[in-house]
Design goal:
By secondary structure, this protein is an alpha/beta fold. It has eleven helices and eight strands. A hairpin with a 2-residue loop joins strand 4 and strand 5.
């Protein structure tokens, strides 16, 4: 691993979390290495997950396959870490959301619940950590990774490799190619944050349709050894933004989002368009037709 920046540890925040009854979820973590010669790896995906989609879940499976067949890592767990409600009030750049996301961000309570529903029966190794979601203040990605490092490598002292010995776990961020593009754009991320995330931890990047990642990687050469790029062998470009658009237009999102999550969205009236009537206006019909046509091209 690279040198840690002098930035941060999540000191001060655990007490707040404990007051809210928080405890780190460990039930789905591997308890011991299958191959002690490998490096234990923990995958962490940070995001809004508003709502969670099948691509969010597939990213973990793709990363696990990549680690198994292309690296000396052994995946010991994977976590989804939804952002807190304070994200709505965060600034611009890497510190805050777009106007569209700000308006489409369901409450942290709902987003954590949907992530749990999506993983509890569909996976044996993915889990949801609500620590970031329950914070009163927005937590930058670097601090969130520090939190996982603290829980896994300090509190838990890594993972057992047998004979009473334990090994530190490498924590990496799992994200889409759009993240690397923002990281390579001057002024979006601070140098300190980049060094902390890419230097100390590292990132697994899943390529997305239509995204050119080569130029972005060229601007991040000093951390290239800590960036792993995963090709999508079966292309999937579904996104939470598109799901919200479909829902707003009263279109089906079945088979794009786990069925229990759709039921949850419907039961709680999430992502309803306050300005939309119960019937679709001609203007919306035209827009819907164009969206269907565009979607069929990528199918």
């Amino acid at each position: 691993m690279g040198q840690a920046s002098s930035l941060r540890t999540p000191e001060g925040t655990p007490s707040q979390a404990n007051e809210l009854g928080y405890s780190f979820p460990r039930s789905r973590l591997k308890q011991a290495m299958s191959d002690p010669s490998k490096t234990p790896l923990l995958l962490v995906a940070c995001g809004s997950f508003s709502p969670i989609t099948y691509l969010h879940l597939r990213m973990f499976e793709m990363a696990a396959d990549y680690a198994k067949y292309n690296t000396d890592f052994e995946v010991i767990g994977g976590y989804l870490s939804p952002v807190s409600d304070a994200y709505r009030k965060a600034g611009t750049g890497n510190m805050g959301p777009s106007a569209e996301l700000r308006s489409g961000l369901a409450s942290a309570e709902h987003r954590v619940a949907m992530a749990r529903i999506a993983t509890e029966k569909s996976s044996t190794w993915l889990d949801v950590d609500p620590w970031e979601a329950i914070q009163k203040d927005y937590q930058p990605t670097a601090i969130v990774l520090d939190h996982f490092d603290h829980e896994i490598n300090v509190v838990q002292r890594g993972i057992s490799i047998g004979n009473g010995e334990r090994k530190p776990v490498k924590i990496v961020l799992l994200a889409g190619a759009d993240l690397i593009q923002t990281m390579s754009t001057p002024g979006v991320w601070s140098q300190e944050d980049l060094d902390h995330i890419l230097g100390r931890y590292g990132v697994f990047i899943v390529e997305r349709t239509g995204t050119d990642i080569d130029d972005a990687l060229a601007a991040l050469t000093q951390w290239r050894h800590n960036i792993w790029v995963i090709q999508q062998l079966i292309q999937n470009d579904v996104s939470s933004t598109k799901i919200r658009l479909f829902l707003k237009r009263e279109m089906s999102v079945r088979y794009l989002v786990p069925a229990p999550v759709i039921s949850y969205i419907e039961a709680h009236g999430l992502y309803d368009d306050d300005g939309a009537s119960s019937s679709i206006h001609e203007k919306d019909k035209e827009s819907k037709g164009k969206l269907v046509a565009e979607s069929s091209k990528s199918g």
